[in-house]
């Protein structure tokens, strides 16, 4: 198939008459194997991450210790280099924004012709490129990286440098916007965490540090066991050997889905009746008991059924207040009851958590205030999701598809 007539679906007007060349990977990039040998103290050791790219280890949670003697065999990395990672078959060809050194196990690629590195930073993450890179490979799995020879076999688009730069600038500006919006989200989440600590009593205190003016002189909050003031129950799982149980309209909520409005599985009325699965209502409090998300807590967004890995907590009048109360207590419960923060909770542990209650009007005021903060957080999350969808569309549209799917002159 000729590649000279393949063009992207989206193109800046000034480049529409320009033909795009396609070159093999080794026409544009070469292996770079410069070893450190000396002056290693001035160079950070880089971790190669699909989330962060090539990044100094101290900037992320990376606790691998390497001796100075071993570091002498490490490879030098320059800003603009690419590193083929162990997960390269899943899109792990990572861009380095840092000068540093990396393990000799990695393959470093450096441009051998004039090009815009940022253009290829984005291109190497497109679905079409990853599919083409892995299409004819056999036996590639975790722990085995794509070789330079395999990388070289794949055709890469090579438009003019002006077009490369324009596309890179467009996508980089969107990344900057995404970064800004994610920082706003982080600030909102931090703000909420601080409010939870201030609006609820801490330690042995029976009054919070912050209190709305109209409740300043209302005295101490009243202590109650969760079991004494709330209805609690967990569910069960219909037999997976009976397929009819999973052909129905009842959303089946599992522990990783307690905060979702859509579930992966649905069960039938017979599945519900012939199992220990229990119904929950929208607005009930759901707590994950088992696995890596033990202690996660959410207000159910849907009516559905729960399995044995979830505890439902409901109160006649104060569900939201109790949710926020538990939200700020749960990290301590998990730390105290589960070794290392991993493992399982139990319904009995949750039932005997001590809660502090102010007057009902104060409960409602606190819950409404924190709900308004949650609404801001949810709007910010949706905004970020939309930007990410927009970026995904641009990544699909701004680069030519070597598979031939797209516009052809």
CATH topology of the largest domain: Adenine-n6-DNA-methyltransferase TaqI, Chain A, domain 2
Shape: elongated
Q: Describe the biggest sheet? A: 4 strands, antiparallel
Total number of strands: 22
Under the CATH scheme, which class of the largest domain? Answer: Alpha Beta
Query: Overall mean pLDDT score?
Result: 89
Strand order in the largest sheet: 3-10-7-8
Low-pLDDT regions = 404-409
Helix and strand composition category: alpha+beta
CATH architecture of the largest domain: Alpha-Beta Complex
Number of helices: 11
Quaternary state reads: single chain
Rg (C-alpha, Å): 27 Å
CATH homologous superfamily label of the largest domain: DNA methylase specificity domains
Distance between the termini: 14 Å
Number of domains: 3
Q: Estimate what percentage of residues fall within beta strands.
A: 15-25%
Measured as a percent range, the helix fraction is: 25-40%
Which key terms come to mind for this protein?
single chain, 409 residues, alpha+beta, Adenine-n6-DNA-methyltransferase TaqI, Chain A, domain 2, Helix Hairpins, 3 domains, 4-stranded antiparallel β-sheet, 11 helices, 34% helix, disordered C terminus
